């Protein structure tokens, strides 16, 4: 008696920024055609990051690998036709367009990155030497240069000139913005 085929993880290349559109299309098309048993998961690897926008701290989902999505599937000619015919897809990652499955350790690493509860990652908006302007607090409108960045505290040390004397200020990311 033949053993049933085993689902494996594959990487599908898409146009960058179209990952969600491709995922939604594939899920609806697979359901419509009754291929749910062949394509069981479509995953866009993402991570949550902080960013500063208009002086406010926001969180957003950032795609870990822009232009790539993961599929858990049994790839047969019928499913392959559906996948390759999806809008905004480039094709499977592999040699000569032939889908090559990911190794289990690769899948575990990628999916583990998404599941890790390491807290949210802050995109560091400043680096040493950046010219900045203070936009909040008692030193509002002062300008200076970033001397040091403290990503764990989400603060920067800025050197400003007060009465002709260089003075270090420790400020929150929200209290400064890039000059210019």
UniProtKB/TrEMBL annotation:
Keyword set includes Transmembrane helix: no
KOW domain location: 125-152
GO cellular component, one term: cytosol
Family affiliation: Belongs to the NusG family.
Protein name (Swiss-Prot/TrEMBL): Transcription termination/antitermination protein NusG
UniProt-listed PANTHER family: RHO-INTERACTING TRANSCRIPTION TERMINATION FACTOR NUSG, TRANSCRIPTION TERMINATION_ANTITERMINATION PROTEIN NUSG
InterPro entries membership: KOW, NGN, NGN-like_dom, NGN_dom_sf, NusG-like, Rib_uL2_dom2, Transcrpt_antiterm_NusG, Translation_prot_SH3-like_sf
Gene: nusG
Source organism, top-level taxon: Bacteria
Biological process terms in GO annotation: DNA-templated transcription elongation; DNA-templated transcription termination; regulation of DNA-templated transcription elongation; transcription antitermination
Entry function: Participates in transcription elongation, termination and antitermination.
Alphabetical UniProt keywords: Transcription, Transcription antitermination, Transcription regulation, Transcription termination
Annotated ranges, domain NusG-like N-terminal: 6-114
Listed HAMAP family: NusG
Keyword Transcription found: yes
One Pfam family it belongs to: NusG
SMART domains documented for this protein: KOW, NGN
């Amino acid at each position: 008696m033949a053993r049933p085929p085993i689902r494996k993880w594959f990487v599908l290349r898409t146009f960058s920024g179209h990952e969600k559109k491709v995922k939604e299309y594939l899920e609806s098309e697979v359901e419509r055609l009754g291929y749910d048993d062949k394509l069981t998961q479509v995953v866009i690897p993402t991570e949550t990051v902080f960013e500063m926008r208009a002086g406010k701290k926001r969180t957003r989902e950032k795609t870990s690998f822009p232009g790539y999505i993961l599929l858990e599937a049994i790839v047969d000619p019928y499913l392959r036709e559906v996948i390759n015919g999806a809008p905004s897809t480039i094709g499977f990652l592999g040699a000569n367009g032939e889908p090559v499955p990911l190794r289990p350790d690769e899948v575990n690493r990628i999916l583990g990155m998404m599941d890790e509860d390491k807290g949210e990652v802050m995109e560091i908006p400043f680096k040493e030497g950046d010219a900045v302007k203070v936009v909040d607090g008692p030193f509002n409108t002062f300008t200076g240069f970033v001397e040091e960045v403290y990503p764990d505290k989400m603060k920067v040390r800025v050197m400003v000139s007060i009465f002709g004397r260089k003075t270090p200020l420790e400020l929150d990311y929200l209290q400064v913005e890039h000059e210019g």
